């Protein structure tokens, strides 16, 4: 790790000369994050994080940069590392260090060793609060950096994958401090997961392949909020959408929304484009690769690079044509069929595109900022384990977002309030 001569802040970034470019992009994102801007202005006045050290393992994007700015404005000392080896925007990382004075350990396309080195570097700040995106930071705290746990007040997790891991840790009694499932707030998963993932995943497919979606068969593996978003966007662009699921309720939901539903063993015969978004491993594997069409496009919108069995492709392809296009690798199988893999099987919307639009991340990161403030006050009463974001925070973020978009809603009349809070009225 290095300490810049001009900026006395520990960091490890790719290229300091990109800082000016990164600042412009961060400011552009800020234009579409009015709720977070309001929160930052209040934080600057009230200084709720004065004396508080925060380690964050998140995608180093322009939207994340604005969250970091809000926390710093509130007095926090920050150390940020990347939550995915391909998601770092190097210009954003440079700007955070050299324009905003925030410690960042992140480089795009870093190797596994470097990835975990950066996590450990961010933990060296000896945090009081942790922000995680996938639970790698919290996992490291509970395995190799246990000496730091005593100082931890609590933390926030913003992804479905991370919440799944934390739930298991809590179930096993392994989680040593309170974590808040920011992912599970309505203003996060109903919008970030659905509209953000849907748009940014399709954006990544277009940037990587320039393929026409209309008339194609697109297979979505998983019909949670992220899967719904991908399916909706693809259907709107004229794709024939097939959904694969393991949950009968979600499968029924997909069927009644007009999608074809079938097992992946069947869907693999028909798909032109595949998007995995399950949070599980080996969703696309040998038995599926063997029946896919020539030229099938594979992408993963789940957090970790385990949903597509890339190792099988690496071991069994007779030829690999790397980087045929932007973040597109071509695997030629023994029978001559070609399979195209986007972003190395990693999170495609960040590996091959810019991630979610700033407008939707405005809500997610406002949830994060307000939850972190809440944690400082409530952690002692929460206890170790996984907890929900208070409803009032969720509703406040929604109210502010509506207001920023120029919309208002009805209010209950006194008679309606009385009716909803009584039981005497019958038919």
Describe this structure in words.
This protein is α/β, with parallel strands linked by helices and 427 residues long. The protein folds into 2 domains: 2-188 and 356-404, Rossmann fold, CATH 3.40.50.1480; 195-351, Rossmann fold, CATH 3.40.50. It is 44% helix and 17% strand. The protein is built from 17 helices and 17 strands. The protein has helices at 19-30, 34-46, 62-73, 90-98, 112-123, 136-143, 160-171, 186-209, 225-236, 248-256, 264-267, 286-289, 310-316, 348-351, 358-382, 391-404, 414-420; strands at 2-3, 10-11, 53-58, 77-82, 103-105, 129-132, 154-157, 178-181, 217-221, 240-244, 260-261, 273-276, 296-300, 319-325, 328-332, 338-342, 385-387. The strands form 3 sheets. Strands 11-10-9-12-13-16-15-14 form an 8-stranded mixed sheet. Helix 6 (136-143) links the parallel strand 6 and strand 7. Helix 8 packs across helix 9. The longest helix has 25 residues, at 358-382. The protein is globular and about 65 Å long. Mean pLDDT is 96; it is low at 1-5.
First-last Cα distance:
72 Å
**Would you identify the CATH architecture of the largest domain?**
3-Layer(aba) Sandwich
**C-alpha geometry:** globular
Biggest sheet character: 8 strands, mixed
**How much is the radius of gyration in Å?**
22 Å
Please give the count of helices. Answer: 17
Oligomer class: single chain
Number of beta strands: 17
| Unreliable spans | 1-5
Counting structural domains, the number is: 2
Helical fraction equals: 40-55%
Going by helix content, strand content and strand pairing, the class is alpha/beta
The CATH superfamily label of the largest domain reads Adenosylhomocysteinase-like
